[in-house]
Amino acid sequence: MAAARRLIPQPLRAATYETLIGLLSATGVRIGEAIKLDRGDIDWAEGVLVVRESKFHKSRLVPLQESSLGALRRYAQTRDQLCPRPTDESFFVSLSGTRLIYVSVCKVFRMLCEESGVGAGSATPPRIHGIRHAFAVNVLLGWYREGVDVQARLHSLSTYMGHRVPRFTFTYLSATPELLAYAAGLLEAAREVRS
């Protein structure tokens, strides 16, 4: 996000990518869902994002934290000042006032990662879809740390992320070092209790 703030040639481009990456990180929405957002898809009073006709042709409501809502509000003000006559109702706009294009967003994301050193030395470079994966893993780790019944909450995470059934959410919960370490710690604690 810091690299996004330094994007040139215009402050609109920087604001767009900083806010877009922030929204993906805070909500776990798909990149296609974020790009497809229109100005009317944010219920400012209720603090809810309306994701319309997403994967599987379903729509859903995504609750926003106050910090995310504030970031979206600041972006909307900046966007309206710097692009007073957009060509459509897209929430996130390009320099020409049009809806962002997926391929362009992926290229900019890759450039931002390279510039900031994210994924340096990795066998596979970071992809923008990895933000959604990280969101799911972080939610799961948070639940484990809080000591809540993770199995009971998986359906909620699945619904929030727009999956039809929880098994599709498992794709995002692949073995990460931190998740494996936490699971190993739980297993060890369970063994000690049995001894």
What would the keywords be for this entry?
three-stranded antiparallel sheet, single chain, 9 helices, globular, hpI Integrase, Chain A, mainly alpha
If you had to describe this structure to a student in words, what would you say it looks like?
- The chain is mainly alpha-helical and 195 residues long.
- The chain has helices spanning 2-5, 11-27, 31-36, 66-82, 102-116, 130-146, 150-160, 166-169, 177-194, and strands spanning 42-43, 48-51, 60-63.
- The chain has 2 domains: 2-116, Orthogonal Bundle (hpI Integrase, Chain A); 130-194, no CATH class.
- It has a 3-stranded antiparallel beta sheet with strand order 1-2-3.
- The chain is globular, with a radius of gyration of 19 Å.
- It starts with a helix and ends with a helix.
- The mean pLDDT is 87.
Short description:
A 3-stranded antiparallel β-sheet has the order 1-2-3.
